Amino acid sequence: MANILRNRLRCAVVAIALCSGLSMAADGQDLLNDTTAEGVVARYQDFSKYPPESRPLHASNWDLLNPWTVDTAKLPLTPASWKAQLETLMASGMSQADIAQKIGAPSSFPTYNFAVNKLILAGTQDALLARLTVSPAPGTVSLPSFRIAKAQLIGDSNFGSQNLGAVPFSCEPGVDPVCTFTWKALTGDKRYWGTLQLQVTVAVAGKGDDYVALLHFYSSPMVAGKFTGNFQERLEAGSLLIDASVSVQKRMACFVSANLYSVDKGVPTHHAERRMIVDPSMNAITFTFFGKIFRDNGHEGAFRLQDLKAQCENLPYPPEWFMDSSAHLDDLAKLKTPASEEPSRVYFEYNSFTFTTKSHLGSEFSADEWQAPERAQKLELLKKAAQKPEDPSMPEQLKRLAK
Amino acid sequence: MRTKMTKLLLAMAGCLMLAGALTSTLAQAQTVNILMIHGRTDPSKTNPVEQYGVFSTDQMNDWGSSVPVTGGHVYYVQWDAWNRNFDSTASGYGGWYWMNYAANNYCNGKNGQACYIICHSIGCAAFENYLAKSSYSTDGIVIKWVLAAESAAGGSELADSAVALIGQSLGFNTNAPIDASITTSYARGAYNHNNMQGVIVRGTGGTSNDTATEVLTTCAYFPEQFTLNPNADCTTCPVDLETSCDDSTVALHSTCGHNRVAAFENCNGYLPGTSQNDSAGTYEYHTYWINDSGYKGPFSTAGKGYWNSSEFTWRVDHSLGKTLATDEYSAAPAALAP
Asked: Using one digit for the tens of pLDDT, what is the confidence trace for A101-136?
């Protein structure tokens, strides 16, 4: 009985504390940055005012605006013998300081960088352009003359990291040597699939050793399908819907995405991303650009669809098991897993299609929040989860001891 | 004035209703589970070798002696973070497989469960990948928040270089198959890092790359910049006076959830609808531990010693970030970390 009374008292105290938090958050802003259980509910409510498949897009979303690439880092141009020695010495347990003393530290090596057009290739028509520049070692001004001894492509480790052959390149003459490497998959063969490595061996004048520059990228020479470049727009329930025609080759679980820009303002407005099973019977994939996002940001006029992309999961089981994984936990557990795997992703063929809509008035779009049964159900679950833990007296007591 | 008074009255009425609701729902208690997700680890470092699954003990001693203090239940999600990629769907082994299994069996709101996630390094990529690809809006999973300790979700330049240094700070002196998925291009290209389903990921970004012991990674691999206002805890490279902000294994661009691979001096936040709106580029729903509207960390004694309050970074290296995360969970108020 004493415990029950104590818990009720504690509960009342917690309630008062919660209330002070709620009143503090009367304008809504604070509660959205509140990690307590009540904040979790408020934030999901705010998040789900737009559907998960149609989100606002801003100029700061660099990654979403550049869906096929990632920034490349400047790295030390490593002597081939140094890398081999490093691995031997590290495996022997030698400290970094001792290794540096013995074979030198990479901070004293020249550096290299690859400027690339993209780091994900999709299909056999999609090409990598990688422009290699080499810079003097930090603190030095002169770069010894060098030449490209060889450029090779190394395959995915799941297929034994095979040497896939020479990569063509050309170098621009000049004081600062710059060389451009080009590659695309010749066929849809699996050996061109997965994480590939462009391995460039650089011979430096006056040095007996070769140096190695690396670039990793992902290649999906076989495709799950393609966009065909035909589009149709319509308004439905105050949102803009665009049907993108597709030709699907394989039934797969995919994340199909596209960006929308305001033509008049020249700014991004929406990122649509569908989690779906694509199937050869499909003729089109519909992207929804949610009405309230137009209204909340004052977007109207004509809009441009671009950056169409479909990334599909390479699964050794039916795509339904991935899509509704909670219903297939037992099925997944019973699967026999091979020692090695295939690469995880297959894409639709790369495209540069764009589609410009007709001009729309802002009033054509709905200002209503997303209203779907799943939203209400999720909020209900989160509200339940905001209730007390099993033994509400335990955490504070334990935590006081911990402090 | 009238509006303020109305708001106050409404708030008070709401308080009374909430207090009543709380006292009447004691019987509907929830189960709080804390999932600990390790990073790159060699399954053969122990005898017997690592068992994969969800366990109440840390078989691999991945988290050291540091265990979160909680009134809930602590579980260790053990996955093959050596031979399989973080996004591997391989049954019984892969990152996605075990994250999916753990979420469905331990974070199921329909069964009265709710989860708090503490992840480390590439374990954070494994969880984020699961979350981004999940049907969170329609399933019954309840994730309260994620504490990402030294997250490698943005990849590491050490993996880009394919040198064995990638796991050195964790005591693994060899390359591993998983390293191919820790490259910056793979880690960032595998899933939509913004799509955290409204769940906040709070990261600890470590800046301790000790030149005395980590000579090989210092000022060599991670992005550097020259700035007149450097983060005093980052490494100033002696030759060019540029600063490198990393934890010896991963740079701040990854640990802080920045959406570009570049040199950063600090952590920021991007929480839609709040004043944390990093225009310099942070993935949505990512921010730092912790500048909650109600709770300002750090909470632990050790954490207070590591915290850089102007840059929102921590004076820890890649390995120490694990201890920091569990210490902070333990010392945080129960309303925040029960």
From this structure: 999 889 889 999 999 999 999 999 999 999 999 988
Q: Are residues A150 and A187 in the same domain?
A: yes
List chain A residues with CB under 8 Å of B270.
60
User: Is the CB of B239 less than 8 angstroms away from the CB of A139?
Assistant: yes
Q: What are phi and psi of A170, to 5 degrees?
A: -140, 145
Count of structural domains, chain A: 3
Give, in order, the Cα–Cα distances in Å from B86 to each of A21, A170, A215, B183: 38, 36, 20, 12
Same domain, A88 and A210: yes
Enumerate the residues of chain A whose CB falls inside 8 A of the CB of residue B97: 332
CB A377 within 8 A of CB A253: no
pTM: 0.91
Question: What CATH number is associated with residue A129?
Answer: 2.60.40.1930
Of the partner residues A36, A218, A402, the one whose CB lies closest to the CB of residue B185: A218
pLDDT in tens, A149-203: 999 999 999 999 999 999 999 998 776 679 999 999 999 999 999 999 999 999 8
Dihedral-angle region of residue A298 (phi above 0 means left; psi in -120 to 50 means alpha; beta otherwise): left
Kindly write down the DSSP assignment for every residue of B80-137, as one continuous string.
-TTTS-TT---TTT-HHHHHHHHHHHHSBGGGTEEEEEEEETHHHHHHHHHHHHS-TT
DSSP A301: B
Which of B30, B283, B330 comes nearest A389 by C-beta?
A: B30
Distance (Å, whole) CA B321 – CA B246: 12
A266: left (phi over 0), alpha (psi -120 to 50) or beta: left
ipTM: 0.91
Q: Compute the distance between CA of residue A177 and CA of residue A171 in angstroms, rounded to an integer.
A: 7
Chain A's closest residue to B283, CA to CA, is A61
B237 to A52: CB separation less than 8 angstroms, yes or no: no
Which residues in chain A (339-378) have CB-CB distances under 8 A to chain B? 341, 344-345, 374-375, 377-378
- CB-neighbour burial class of residue B9 (10 A; exposed 0-12, middle 13-18, buried 19+): exposed
Of B136, B216, B270, the CB nearest to A106: B216
> Are A349 and A397 found together in one domain?
no
Phi, psi (degrees; rounded to nearest 5) at A393: -80, -20
* Dihedral (CA of A266, A268, A269, A271) sign: positive
Enclosing H/E stretch for B224: strand B224-225
The CA–CA distances, whole Å, from A131 to A180, B248, B260 equal 4, 28, 19
H or E, element range at A26:
none
Chain B CB contacts of A66 under 8 Å are none
Domain assignment present for residue A58? The answer is no
**Beta-sheet pairing, B113-120 with B143-149:** parallel
The answer as to whether A59 is a domain residue is no
Quote the CA–CA distance of A140 and B240 in Å, as a whole number.
9
Identify residue B332 by its one-letter amino acid code.
A
Residue A135 in tokens:
């810079």
Which residues are bridge partners to A309 per DSSP? A257
Domain assignment of residue A37, given as a range: 2-49+371-401
